[in-house]
Design a protein that fits this description.
By secondary structure, the chain is an all-alpha fold. It has a domain of 96 residues. It has twelve helices and no strands. The longest helix is centred in the N-terminal third of the chain and has 14 residues. The protein is elongated and about 50 Å long. This is HEAT repeat domain-containing protein.
Length: 202
């Protein structure tokens, strides 16, 4: 891992990005301080948003909770590259949850007014296969049900739903089967069968 930590300081952004991706897969909390230090420098260059995305994702997946205040501050800033918000939403949920099925951090981000931030938060719920309580699932469904059948904000809720219970969950998934987007239909069919699919986000 030491070589990857050193690579985070490379002069070339693709090299730094590659190191962050590999550290993300390792999910080692000991990389956290180095990733946070790298992000504080990286975030100043708007050209390297892809590298910023990978560092933020790595912080979330390695469970470095000390990065949370900085990530929350970033979520209020303006970024032209909206993928940064998606990574922030994902990592903030991972680092804020109090237990494995705690979707409250995601629900809090739904009220941000930033769809990319909300989308990232819902992606974390799906990727972690959370099974929130009924109150939380209802809040999530209420939020996304106001969107059209083809809007992207629905996707990660469909992907998260195999482990959820309730008539409102079933109704939502049956509704999503009428989307014109094939990935929505396929995910909804799987969810209705209580089957998870392995997703591979960027």
């Amino acid at each position: 891992m030491q070589n990857l930590l050193e690579q985070l300081k490379d002069k070339r952004s693709p090299k730094r990005r590659s190191a962050a991706k590999k550290l993300r897969k390792m999910s080692n909390v000991e990389a956290g301080p180095y990733l946070l230090d790298a992000l504080e420098k990286e975030i100043k260059d708007v050209r390297t948003w892809e590298t910023q995305y990978q560092i933020i994702m790595a912080l979330g997946e390695c469970g470095y909770t000390k990065a949370l205040p900085f990530l929350i501050r970033l979520s209020d800033k303006y970024f032209e590259a909206t993928m940064i918000y998606m990574a922030l939403g994902d990592s903030i949920v991972r680092l804020s949850k109090q237990h494995e099925n705690d979707a409250s951090p995601a629900i809090n981000l739904l009220d941000s007014g930033n769809e990319s931030l909300a989308d990232g938060a819902l992606r974390a719920v799906a990727m972690l296969r959370m099974q929130p309580n009924r109150e939380q699932t209802s809040a999530i469904l209420e939020f996304v049900s106001s969107s059209s059948l083809n809007e992207g904000i629905r996707f990660w809720v469909i992907a998260a739903a195999p482990g959820w219970e309730g008539d409102d969950v079933k109704h939502f998934l049956e509704q999503c089967r009428n989307s014109s987007r094939e990935e929505f239909k396929d995910a909804a069919e799987l969810a209705l069968k209580k089957k998870y699919r392995k997703w591979h986000p960027l």
